[in-house]
Write a structure and sequence with these properties.
By secondary structure, the chain is an alpha+beta fold. It is built from 5 helices and 6 strands; from the N terminus they run βαβββαααββα. Strands 1-4-3-2 form a 4-stranded antiparallel sheet, with helices on both faces.
């Protein structure tokens, strides 16, 4: 069984990987982040992945529905300004569960990006988007589908890292003061 995937997509003409929030797709232009998370080897080569992504985008970019079926896979998706967010699972996956993962991803990103779910804000806050994705899905297994829980965990991680950085800064400041006082004696 193929595990669900979560991946945002850019607006047509913005580059294939410009606004993706995941793993091994090549960047559209040098210096841009890569993007998709594949949790199995359904598409082992980069070429197969790119063909699949192009087919998915072509099938979903011109419709207003929220679900599509392509090549034995269930695809749920949502667009926001210049991004398309996709969650892909096998044809045996429950569409409602895939939709709850997509909703959780969108609402969590909406909170993290301060209601600016668009390419530019996503690129500027890619670390937060990766944290959100990691809290929702791990190795293709859905861990969380409640956006409030995801936001709480991501904020907790952000608070931890800020505390660590502050502690290191405090230690360095303390060391500077000790050296200064030892030289003045």
């Amino acid at each position: 069984m193929q595990r669900p995937e979560a991946w945002p997509r850019p607006h047509p003409g913005e580059g294939a990987a410009a606004a993706q929030a995941g793993g091994p797709a090549p960047p559209a232009r040098a210096g841009e982040p890569s993007g998709l998370r594949y949790y199995d080897d359904t598409f082992p080569s980069m070429k197969e992945q790119m063909v699949f992504e192009k087919n998915v985008f072509n099938k979903t970019s011109r419709t207003e529905s929220e679900i599509a079926f392509l090549g034995g896979m269930t695809i749920v998706y949502k667009s926001s300004i210049d991004l398309f967010l996709y969650v892909v699972g096998s044809s045996y996956e429950n569409e409602l569960m895939l939709m709850s993962v997509l909703t959780c991803l969108f609402e969590s990103l909406n909170h993290i990006l301060r209601k600016n779910v668009e390419k530019r804000w996503l690129l500027e806050n890619m670390d937060g988007a990766f944290l959100v994705l990691d809290e929702i899905v791990d190795g293709g297994i859905i861990l969380e589908s409640d956006p409030q829980q995801v936001i709480q965990k991501v904020n907790f991680r952000a608070d931890d890292s800020g505390f660590t950085e502050q502690s290191v800064a405090q230690v360095l400041q303390s060391a500077k003061e000790q050296i200064k006082w030892s030289l003045l004696k």
